[in-house]
Amino acid sequence: MKLLSGIRKDLFLYLLIFPGTLYFIIFKYVPMWGIVISFQEYSPYIGVWKSPWVGFEHFIHLFGNPDFMLLFRNTMVISAMSIVFYFPMPILIALMLNELRSALYKRVIQSVVYLPHFLSWVIISGITFLMLSQSGGIMNKILPLLGLKPFNFLTNPDAFWWLLTTQSIWKETGWGTIIYLAAMAGVDPQLYEAAKMDGAGRFRQIWHVTLPGIRHIIVTLFILRLGHIMDVGFEQVFLMMNSAVSEVADVFETYVYRNGIQQGQFSYSTAVGLFKSVIGLALVIIANKLAKRYGEEGLI
Q1: Where are the transmembrane segments (predicted)?
Q2: 15 in any annotated domain
């Protein structure tokens, strides 16, 4: 009865969240039963219920695969570089935009930095090839003018991880600032006035007022980012991958594509996906507990 009375009291709020809740139930939770095929030798011709049960055979095959450590290394390094170099960038850009006093100039800058988000990875890759290709790339035409030798940006294994990270920063940093700007708008203006009264300059106000005011948002987004640590973006890696950099470019997503899509190993590729999900869930739980231990709100 209490539940029904609560629903009646906030009926319009429940109606507001209903479409989003329905979306997650249909497209996120219901399909989760499909992970059962990772424990089967699934065949689309006989279906899930009649496919033979093989237990942990696919997981044993995955962990015993000679390429497993290579895939794990590449995935973790690319994700780690994204966390270290990309994750702080939206915060930095949001702090700079928040300090702009001209509303018109601020809107123009926001529009410019948001624009790359709306470009597909196909377009981003095309721009990258036009800019960095060894034969006709703009950068390799400029370098000789500066007295430098042309550089193999696209076929150099040592540069591949940095190339992916730079692409991600350029494409997504502007879009990532939206949440932080919204959080900064909620910081109490009286705190800034009090800081000014105490003689704090701009940088002191940012350090002692703005950043503490959005700290819970930063922590929450960082925890959520850890949940995707095994996801490095299939499209980006697949489009930039070539035979010269395959040793550092091959990740779990490309591996699943080759085995699951091209070779039809649906159960095995599902097992790989389940392994990734378990790692992400474990990191989220651990990070959430650590955040709460140190006084943060965490996710729940």
Answers
A1: 12-30, 76-97, 118-139
A2: no
Under the banding of pLDDT at 50, 70 and 90, the label for residue 77 is: very high
Find the angle CA(31)-CA(35)-CA(39) to the nearest 5 degrees. Answer: 155
18 located within any domain: no
- Calpha distance 256→274 (Å, rounded): 12
Quote the pLDDT of residue 44: 83
pLDDT in tens, 221-241: 999 999 999 999 899 999 999
For residue 96, the domain's CATH number is 1.10.3720.10
pLDDT at residue 120, as a whole number = 93
- pLDDT recorded at residue 4: 72
Average pLDDT of the residues in 146-169: 90
Is 248 part of a structural domain of the chain? yes
Is residue 10 scored above 80 in pLDDT?
Answer: no
Residue 14 lies in a domain: no
Q: How many CA atoms are closer than 13 Å to the CA of 279, on its beta-carbon side?
A: 16
The domain total for the chain is: 1
* 178: containing domain: 57-120+172-293
